[in-house]
Amino acid sequence: MSLGPDALREPAVKLRSARATEITFPMFNMTTGGLWRVEGTTCGASPGGSAAASRFSIVAKLLQSPLLWSGIGRVPPHFKDGLALHYPWRTEAQVYASDLAEAMPVGGRLSEIYNIERRPFAAGLVLPGTVRKVPQCNQRVSPGDGNNGV
User: Fold this and answer.
1) 150 vs 12, which has greater pLDDT?
2) Strands, E, within the chain: which ranges?
3) Distance of CA 23 to CAs 20, 30, 58, 60, 109, Å?
4) Which of 82, 89, 113, 129 has the fewest CB atoms within 10 Å, i.e. is most exposed?
């Protein structure tokens, strides 16, 4: 899954640093391949013309075909083909890619998605997090310096 200016909603930004940390949880869902918190620093031009740095923290989620699930070996062979064909593992990505968020009732909402990357047997979602402005880009900053607030 790529993380670039489009995913960060900044057209003229350069990725300075990034790291991903797995978010662990009990894997009861055969279509969630993993969750990661991605933190980093970008550098881009601010409206005043100076080079401004921003720290970001987002969540990346991997959706996968049930055939890639770690427990697929426990599924009887004669059910695997039907599971792959009929289990709606792409639904979450399709919902976020649709116009459903605009039709939500007052008070209801969907998480905003920064990027959806589709593959034949998987799809990646980049969920919003936080973006914080930090000192000028010529100063050394890193996502793990203890002052990033993410």
Assistant:
1) 12
2) 13-22, 32-45, 51-64, 115-118, 122-136
3) 9, 16, 12, 10, 23
4) 82
